[in-house]
Amino acid sequence: MDQDRLYDLTMRAIGCALEGDAEAASNAMVEIGEIGTWHNVYGSCCAFAEVGKAALVKFYGDRAPDPARGDFWAMQMLPGQTTAPADVFATRFIVAYANGDKDSAFALFRSALESSEDDYVSSVAALLATAASLANSALEHTRNRE
């Protein structure tokens, strides 16, 4: 898959997830998975995690961890999430990514990739849903402060 197509599909998945259109987001993700390689899916996962990270920074503002000071993100399971492997994957991946821990993020992805196909698909979908939920929560929080 060429990079332009991957970008378009990734952005479509994110946009649809933010709007609550799970079916359209799923269709974009399915196309990435069917036409692309696992490298493409990992790139999309990093984009989803970037959305989650940006939402966390926006939500916490000045209280956000500052890597320059040696701070790091730590996150408990989000409200509404379960201890299902897909939800745990989503939370851990976003935290690893937000902390700049590329090795852990990749190890988490590889673990999902090497699990059953259903678990892999559920994990990637949960990552997108979690990132969108964080972004929408940060937006609502920001609006409520104004």
Overview in brief:
The chain is mainly α and 146 residues long. The chain contains six helices and no strands.
Task: Describe the protein.
Helices cover 74% and strands 0% of the residues. The chain has 6 helices and no strands. The protein has helices at 3-18, 22-35, 38-60, 85-98, 102-113, 117-145. Helix 3 (38-60) packs across helix 4 and helix 4 (85-98) crosses helix 6. The protein starts with a helix and ends with a helix. The mean pLDDT is 92.
Topology diagram in text:
Elements: H1 3-18, H2 22-35, H3 38-60, H4 85-98, H5 102-113, H6 117-145
Helix pairs in contact: 1-2, 1-3, 1-6, 3-4, 3-6, 4-5, 4-6
Low-confidence stretches: none
Number of strands: 0
What is the helix tally? Answer: 6
**Which band does the percent of strand residues land in?**
under 5%
Structural class: mainly alpha
Mean pLDDT score, rounded? 92
Order of helices and strands: HHHHHH
The radius of gyration over CA amounts to: 15 Å
